[in-house]
Design brief:
It contains four helices and twelve strands. It has 136 residues and is of the alpha+beta class. Strands 2-1-10-9 form a four-stranded mixed β-sheet. β5 and β6 form a beta hairpin. The longest helix is centred in the last third of the chain and has 9 residues. The two termini are 40 Å apart.
Length: 136
């Protein structure tokens, strides 16, 4: 079994040992590719709802698709273990950035170096670097 880690789940997919050792890419059946990525292989490429991403001919074989090539085409990072038995498909940068934009730290108040109480909410809209430390 090959373990595939995505931003939202972990999947076990049966890939041939020969495929892992002798081929570039992450080749799997269209059904497994859909299970792992949420995208369906169609003649026009990998599709989800109305969106389709065309794939180069080299990324599609007889009843198989190179998920690593597809994921890179989406702009997502792909990495494999040395044995190629564990793969990680990371979220594309625009997805990660969009998730970070919506995050807001909870408000708190602490004294500054002069002992004056400062609240994080006073600094909203400004870049803030918060360094923390704990003794344990």
């Amino acid at each position: 079994m090959t373990k595939i880690l995505t931003p939202t789940a972990e999947h076990d997919v049966a890939l041939g040992a020969v495929d892992r050792a002798q081929r570039d890419g992450l080749w799997m059946s269209p059904a497994d590719a859909e299970k792992v990525t949420g995208w369906t292989l169609k003649p026009e490429g990998m599709c989800r709802a109305e969106a389709c991403v065309p794939l180069p001919a080299a990324a599609v074989g007889t009843n198989e698709v190179d998920v690593a090539a597809f994921w890179k085409k989406l702009g997502g990072p792909v990495i494999a273990s040395e044995k190629r038995d564990v793969w990680a498909l990371g979220a594309p940068a625009d997805e990660r950035n969009a998730a970070l934009e919506g995050l807001e730290a909870p408000d708190f108040t602490l004294p500054d170096v002069n002992g004056v109480p400062r609240s994080l909410s006073q600094l909203r809209g400004k870049k803030v670097f918060v360094a923390t430390w704990a003794s344990w």
